[in-house]
From TrEMBL:
UniProt similarity note: Belongs to the calycin superfamily. Fatty-acid binding protein (FABP) family.
GO molecular function, one term: lipid binding
Name assigned to this protein: RET5 protein
Lineage: superkingdom: Eukaryota
Subunit (UniProt): Monomer.
Length: 135
């Protein structure tokens, strides 16, 4: 049975964000700004429905979805694109596949103790973020 990811998580660290954003064709000014942000995550996980809020001082981003059901995701706030997104479990990892203009785009979340890990991919770039559960 997959873990329940419900909780509020504070940013701890990230690696390779600039190269990941470059792979998404984000301009240099916005890349520098995003690399300075320390986002928090709030996850509400109820059965096969999830809401994942990424919270920053600049802008929040909300994903509201049913597991295993493909939907059109508007990534306008991120990079101006839309893609066909499916989120499902692979063992204990929550895996998102985003089909669209960019190859190999998606992410995966998993828990290690009280830490939430996020691995984001686009093209050949990988960015890893770590968050500490606070409630």
């Amino acid at each position: 049975m997959p873990p329940n990811l419900t909780g509020y998580y504070r940013f701890v660290s990230q690696e390779n964000m600039d190269n990941y954003l470059r792979a998404l064709d984000i301009n240099v000014v916005l890349r520098k700004l995003v690399c300075l942000l320390k986002p928090d995550k709030e996850i509400i996980h109820t059965g096969d429905h999830m809401v994942i809020r990424t919270i920053t001082s600049l802008r929040d981003y909300v994903m509201d979805f049913d597991l295993g059901v493909q939907f059109e995701e508007d990534l306008g706030p991120v990079d101006g694109r839309k893609c066909q997104t499916t989120v499902s479990w692979e063992g204990d990892q929550l895996v998102c596949v985003q089909l669209g203009e960019k190859r190999n785009r998606g992410w995966r979340h998993w828990l290690e103790g009280d830490q939430l890990h996020l691995r984001m991919t686009a093209e050949d770039e990988v960015c890893v973020q770590v968050f500490q559960k606070v409630k």
